[in-house]
Design brief:
Keywords: Hydrolase, Metal-binding, Metalloprotease, Protease, Zinc. The protein has one domain. The protein is about 60% helix and about 5% strand. The protein is built from eight helices and five strands. It has helices at about 1-20, 35-55, 60-75, 120-135, 135-160, 165-200, 205-220, 235-255, and strands at about 20-25, 30, 85-90, 100, 105-110. The strands form two sheets. It has a three-stranded mixed beta sheet with strand order 3-5-4, with helices on both faces. The N and C termini lie far apart (about 70 Å).
Length: about 270
């Protein structure tokens, strides 16, 4: 009887933790957010400074080009809890990658410019990364990891003999049955939010399709989609195409409002 009581108490504790940190994403999806904005901003700053210490930065026309696109994107951010200032670094690296962190930190690897062939394709990447910040995906990811680890600890505490084996099995389930599909939802959400954001900034959203085709061509062999934290390229292209009509309408509105970025003039 006491063993069962402890199980119920432990599971109840986890449920309360989850409900206490329940929020909603910009697309209406329920999220788990257990950490304060200040804490996430601090984590973002620390991570950004770590990158700056480890990787050399690129200046000159390359930085001007990336900064031009980034500024156009972030100027369209009107969320009340979004960063008031965005900090940019272009890192010298062959990797085709970029990131945005809580607190308003954007990092772009110079190798990305070999795949993102023009300002519109680069805007698709930066719109996607900035959207991760606007949708509070970092808080969601850290919170999910925290509560999952707490759950595994509870299992080990209440299960007694065999608890370690059970926790191991649950850990595998968390990896392939809970956390990774959840992370794919984040990526898909950032794709759609980023598409709207780049269109509002005056970049042609159709370029996002060309970008992911380039990514597909340069990415080599991919793991099966169910084992990846990112949607497959074919899947994300299909989702982008499904939202393209509304994004094109936003793009036309931006052009009528005079938002026509000319960042290619800086491209080295």
């Amino acid at each position: 009887m006491r063993h069962t009581t402890w199980k119920h108490a432990a599971l109840g504790c986890l449920v309360v933790m989850g409900l206490a940190g329940c929020t909603t994403s910009p697309l209406g999806r329920s999220q788990l957010s257990l950490f304060s904005a200040d804490k996430l901003d601090q984590m973002g700053q620390q991570s950004f400074e770590t990158y700056q210490k480890k990787l050399p930065e690129v200046q000159g026309r390359t930085r001007q080009y990336v900064e031009c696109v980034a500024d156009a994107i972030t100027e369209q951010v009107n969320s009340k809890d979004a960063p008031k200032k965005w900090n940019l670094a272009v890192f010298k690296s062959d990797q085709a990658n970029a990131f945005a962190l809580p607190g308003g930190y954007i990092g772009v690897y110079s190798g990305l410019l070999n795949v993102a062939e023009n300002q519109d394709q680069l805007a698709a990447v930066l719109g996607h990364e900035v959207s991760h910040v606007l949708a509070h995906h970092a808080n969601e990811r850290v919170s999910t990891q925290s509560i999952t680890q707490s759950g595994l600890s509870v299992v080990q505490a209440v299960a007694g003999q065999g608890g370690e084996q059970l926790a191991t099995l649950l850990g595998a389930g968390a990896q392939y049955g809970v956390l990774l599909p959840f992370s794919r939802k984040q990526e898909s959400e950032a794709d759609l939010l980023g598409l709207d954001l780049m269109a509002k900034a005056g970049f042609n959203p159709q370029a996002s399709i060309a970008l992911w085709n380039n990514m597909k061509a340069s990415g080599g062999q991919q793991p099966p989609e169910w084992m990846s934290t990112h949607p497959g390229n074919d899947h994300r292209i299909q989702d982008l195409q499904g939202r393209m009509a509304s994004a094109q309408a936003l793009y036309q509105q931006a052009k009528k409002a005079g938002r026509t970025p000319n960042c290619n003039r800086f491209r080295p």
